[in-house]
Amino acid sequence: MRLNATNFEPRKIIAEIQSLPVLPKVMQSLLELRENPDANTGQLADIISSDPIITAHFLKFVNSAFFGSEKKITSLTDAIIRLGFINVLNTAITISAAKAFNIPLDGPIGMREFWRHALYSAHLMRFIASKVPANHKLNPDIVFLSGLLHNIGFVLLGDQFREEFTLINNSIKDNNKKTLLEMEEIFIGAQHTELGVLLMRAWGLPSEIITATFEHHNPNFKGMHWQYANLVYVSNFLLRECALSDNHEQCIPANIVDSLGISDTILQQCNEFLNSQTAQIDAAVECLFKD
């Protein structure tokens, strides 16, 4: 039987993890608010403001070039009014998650590049989802969070297996001919997709995001929530042009683009979107790591 996000069981080395990072309180509250149909702006502002550090980073982030605001945003209420409830909610989740871990900043899988890839993925996937046929019924919030968190296993790797994390990080920098997944198998006997599922289960994240995390390197996956996993795969392929992907395929499998309804025109629009967003997203990433 092939493993999937439902029946996957941690391998021995993963089972040796003593304790998983606790879901940050602010992030937990934000995720619960996202599921609440009666959520309001006051509740959102209260949750963010409960953590002064996250509030300060949030205000820096929303005043970055990414949002392109001509007038400085000085308060949470101002941010919600001008950027919208969902944009503020997703931004706050991003910042809360970024501050939850302490792993090396530098290197191909260091925290800086992790978040650079995450933000590019989240925004590119949301762009693609807005273009594909409506019958796929993709939830834009789930799409965004799948893009943001599908590589969260790298962060757990750095948190729990620092030595192995450093070896993999350095091997990638040294242009090792092995793929990232192959190096993970060599150094820890597991893959970041498995580590990510372990953490997401503990955090109680939605099943769509867990599936996208576990299956995003599998172009043939067509199980429950396949659209989200396939969308991450497409995004990873397109991000090779920005040197932001561990996808090694020479072309996108036709079965993925056909099943998602992604035309050549949409693919071209994706490249144009990436070119137009590079400076803003890079500026936003730097804001995440400014003290």
Would you kindly provide a written description of the structure presented here, covering whatever features stand out?
This protein is mainly α. The chain folds into two domains: 23-100, no CATH class; 102-291, Hypothetical protein af1432. Helix content is 62%, strand content 0%. It is built from 16 helices and no strands. It has helices spanning 12-15, 25-34, 41-49, 52-62, 76-83, 85-98, 111-129, 140-149, 152-160, 162-173, 180-188, 192-203, 207-215, 226-238, 254-260, 264-288. Helix 2 runs antiparallel to helix 6 (85-98), helix 8 (140-149) packs across helix 14 (226-238) and helix 10 (162-173) packs antiparallel against helix 11 (180-188). The longest helix is centred in the last third of the chain and has 25 residues, at 264-288. The protein starts with 11 loop residues before the first helix and ends with a helix. The mean pLDDT is 85.
